[in-house]
Amino acid sequence: MKITTKINVITTAWLLLILIAINSIVFLSFMTITFNLVQNEVQQKSSDIIKVMKKNDEQGSLNDKLLPYLASHGFLRIIDDQGHVQTQVSNDQYLLKKIDPEFLRKEKTTKRIIRPHGGEEQIIIYQHPISNSGKVTGTLEIAERVPGLELGKDVLLGILSFCTLLGAVLSLLGGKWLSNIIIRPISNIIGSMEEIEQSGVPKKIVIQRETKDELNKLAVTFNRMIDRLDVTLEQQKQFISDASHELKTPLTVIKSYADLLRRRGIQNVDMTLEAIESIHSEATRIQKMTERFLDLAKTEVDEDLDFKLIPLTEFCQRIIQQLEVAYSRKLKFHTENNKIAVLADELKLKQVIIIIVDNALKYSKEQVEIFVEENERHVIIRVVDYGIGIPADDIDSIFERFYRVDKARSRETGGMGLGLPIAKNIMKQHHGEIKLRSKEGQGTEVALLLPKESKAT
Ligand SMILES: Nc1ncnc2c1ncn2[C@@H]1O[C@H](COP(=O)(O)OP(=O)(O)OP(=O)(O)O)[C@@H](O)[C@H]1O
Ligand SMILES: [Mg+2]
């Protein structure tokens, strides 16, 4: 069942239930109130008749006094202490025959209600004692059919049923209209999703009106997600294009040397050696490049890191030792506090430090220094070199993938422009930061800031 139909059916059923309950209460209250009114009227009438009888004893006949109080269907009669009807006025022979006269001995009014046909029609019989000097001398008997209740009941029932039906129909229509309003944004989202599924192209939802409700929020969030997806797709496309471009040069070199060998053979030893050397060096470059691609891909997703408390002095000194051997260069280590430790993924942190120190060594022939420090919120690993530095215009782009200041020079140094983006991603995974300051010709300083309360992702 469609959600709109579901909402419609449920709300209508619920409203119908409420209407039936309310209408039943209205109907029952109406019946009770009407009946009570008639009862009170009869009671009042009996007291009035008694008063009139006492006041104007000698004026007019008793019949004349009773007549004004006669209801449209009923009788009034006075019964003497022998149980005989002394006088009576009536316009309902049936009632006269049906109800036998009765003398009440006690000074107490009585009230009876009978249903002559067992149906809805009711007859009120009211008996009031007539006393004289403290002695009961007769009974005033009033009988009345409760007028109009049958008709009133039917009319009321009709009106209430009509209103209930009207309410249900209006609720159905209103529900349809309302659920359409509610469902429209959801249908839009479903439509967009289906289009995306078919075309494979992210598409935003058109938001007609800016409302502050949850559905608008849903649409806005959906559009934000599409924006992000767009950016990611664009980045992916860019990456593929950059990566293919980067791979093209070494592959062209390899291919041309392979062609040369094929055409000229291996007779010319010098040329053959040169070709093999170049093929080897370019193949190594491709190998390194693919490793870098994989590293970058790994750091771009929110991977689960293996957080451990790392004592930084020993950790950095170990890395420094390895790098000194690998690069045959000396590195200087400084720290004011040997106890500084940080929560981090050991392998990833080592990778960042190597990327930064590798740059410092590659782009400086001078001394490279590594500092381990801390401030209130961060543990900081600072790598300082006094090398060629980075021109001010390039600093903003330095963390972009494949960005190299001097492409020709980078080729000599084997750089691919992927080190810093990888380092930035790793720092992000650690909820940390990477800051770079540089002056062309003077040197570069890279600071890795790790939060002291590093939270595992
Ligand atoms: N310490 C530094 N001194 C001078 N230039 C630097 C320094 N660090 C980075 N750069 C500049 O920033 C560019 C990008 O650095 P990045 O580490 O991302 O790439 P790369 O070193 O060229 O290649 P690789 O992917 O092998 O690290 C470098 O090509 C270089 O021009
Ligand atoms: Mg680098």
What's the quick description here?
The chain is an alpha+beta fold and 457 residues long.
Indicate the topology.
Elements: H1 3-55, H2 62-66, E1 74-80, E2 85-90, H3 93-98, E3 110-114, E4 123-132, E5 135-145, H4 149-199, H5 214-264, H6 269-300, E6 307-311, H7 312-327, E7 331-335, E8 341-345, H8 346-362, E9 368-374, E10 378-385, H9 392-395, H10 407-413, H11 419-429, E11 433-439, E12 443-451
Parallel strand pairs: 7-9
Antiparallel strand pairs: 1-2, 1-5, 3-4, 4-5, 6-8, 9-10, 10-12, 11-12
Helix pairs in contact: 1-4, 4-5, 5-6, 6-11, 7-8, 8-11
The structure holds adenosine-5'-triphosphate and magnesium ion.
**The CATH topology of the largest domain:** Beta-Lactamase
Q: Span from first to last CA?
A: 41 Å
* Mean pLDDT over the residues: 87
Taking Cα atoms only, what radius of gyration do you get, to the nearest Å?
51 Å
Number of helices: 11
Helix content: 55-70%
Can you list the strand order of the major beta sheet?
2-1-5-4-3
- Can you name the CATH architecture of the largest domain? 2-Layer Sandwich
Domain HAMP: 180-234
Domain Histidine kinase: 242-454
GO molecular function: ATP binding; phosphorelay sensor kinase activity
EC number: 2.7.13.3
Architecture overview:
- There is one protein chain.
- This protein folds into three domains: 3-151, Beta-Lactamase (2-Layer Sandwich), CATH 3.30.450; 202-301, Helix Hairpins (Orthogonal Bundle), CATH 1.10.287; 304-451, Heat Shock Protein 90.
- With 457 residues, it is α+β, with helices and mostly antiparallel strands.
- The two termini are 41 Å apart.
- The strands form three sheets. It has a five-stranded antiparallel β-sheet with strand order 2-1-5-4-3.
- The protein is built from eleven helices and twelve strands.
- α6 runs parallel beside α11 and α7 packs across α8 (346-362).
- 55% of the residues lie in helices and 19% in strands.
- It is rod-shaped, with a radius of gyration of 51 Å.
- It has helices at 3-55, 62-66, 93-98, 149-199, 214-264, 269-300, 312-327, 346-362, 392-395, 407-413, 419-429, and strands at residues 74-80, 85-90, 110-114, 123-132, 135-145, 307-311, 331-335, 341-345, 368-374, 378-385, 433-439, 443-451.
- The mean pLDDT is 87.
